[in-house]
Amino acid sequence: METVSLSLWNAPRAEAPVVATVALPGSKSITNRALILAALADGPSTLTGALRSRDTDLMIGALRTLGIGIETAGADTTLRVTPGPVHGGAVDCGLAGTVMRFLPPVAALASGTVHFDGDEQARTRPLDTILDALRGLGADIDGDSLPFTVRGAGSLRGGRVTIDASGSSQFVSGLLLSAAAFDEGVTVHHDGKTVPSMPHIDMTVEMLRESGVEVSTPATGGEADTWRVSPGVVRAVDRAIEPDLSNATAFLAAAAVTGGEVTVPLWPSRTTQPGDAIRDILLAMGADVRLDGANLTVRGPQQLNSIDIDLHDVGELTPTVAALAALAHGPSHLRGIAHLRGHETDRLAALAHEINSLGGNVTETEDGLTIVPADLHGGTWRSYADHRMATAGAIVGLRVDGIRIEDVGTTAKTLPGFENLWATMLSAGAGTERKASF
Length: 438
What we know:
Elements (H helix, E strand, L loop, with lengths): L7 E3 L8 E3 L6 H12 L5 E4 L5 H12 L3 E5 L1 E8 L4 E6 L4 H11 L3 E7 L10 H9 L3 E3 L5 E6 L5 E5 L6 H9 L7 E5 L7 H13 L4 E2 L9 E4 L9 E2 L4 H14 L2 E4 L13 H7 L3 E5 L2 E5 L8 E3 L7 H9 L5 E4 L11 H11 L3 E4 L4 E4 L6 E3 L5 H11 L5 E4 L11 H10 L11
Parallel strand pairs: 2-15, 3-14, 6-7, 10-11, 18-19, 22-23
Antiparallel strand pairs: 1-23, 3-5, 4-5, 7-9, 8-9, 11-13, 12-13, 15-17, 16-17, 19-21, 20-21
Helix pairs in contact: 1-2, 1-3, 1-6, 3-5, 4-5, 5-6, 7-11, 9-11
């Protein structure tokens, strides 16, 4: 079997405090939810500021394959979505969890057979929860993981289903997004440990309501651990997509670890994006964080504080927080994130291994990581085809000479051109602020 050699990227070290303004593209989570809702809507709609990355382009390609019209309107980030009859086809999920979990319910509404597959690494990702749920709602599906096949009958009965969504909030969101098109809508009851990443479910519910869909949640007087979507029309809505706040966290972390100052414009005053939690995290670690109108500015401290934090609801921030903790003063404890073992890779094992391979002191716990700062040295940082692992390595590289990141191109999953944006940030004004004590 041929061995594939992955390129190594020399992560640049910051020789002075980083000072920059970094404009980020649109949110992947919002873009892919908006695409699903637009595909099921009662008429055409326009998405402005949409993210164009591997994950979103896979979603666009999949919906086009199933019969949805999606065209750019001037800029690549402005998409005109025209619903149409959903038919069969072959869907490439890549490594996109939103595609492999949000598209099967749409495929169940198709008039024809839809085949799903993806990258080799994606074939180990858990999908049986949502596929079994769809079977319980009347869908005809072969397989429990990639590759699998959905035999659409043009409609889906829907109804009530009980699932264990403790592995991923995407199981709930995937069922809710298409549920208004089911004959009986859907009632999703969670039976298991606490659902992680609840802000992502809040995002789904808010976007459904913006589209005129009736949704009952535990927070609005519904049954505990239960979400109900009534059958009905999905109204076409023109949406402006917020910047991706989770992608912003690595750039804000650059200010924190170098004692510099980074501003991200167009930060929303109110959002359901989990990435917004980085503000409180960086405050707790000693940074100065200011939201001035629509500009969020982080100014790093002379020395980062350690942190003891439950990241259960914002698990996608774990790689960034782990990188910060590895460069902080004193031991940090990251908790509530056992579910990250089922992400693009086992993120807990990956973070522990990569930091330790550089001389770090990281221990896996039952539901997280304990990180004791140590004198780190250069070496190869593996990305595991995981975009957030790659950006975590770049953060460490700001303070540690000789970090070489394997396959940094995997960042194109959610942030194409990351390397150029990172280099531009470093050259924008480094050294114009006070000296940092590294």
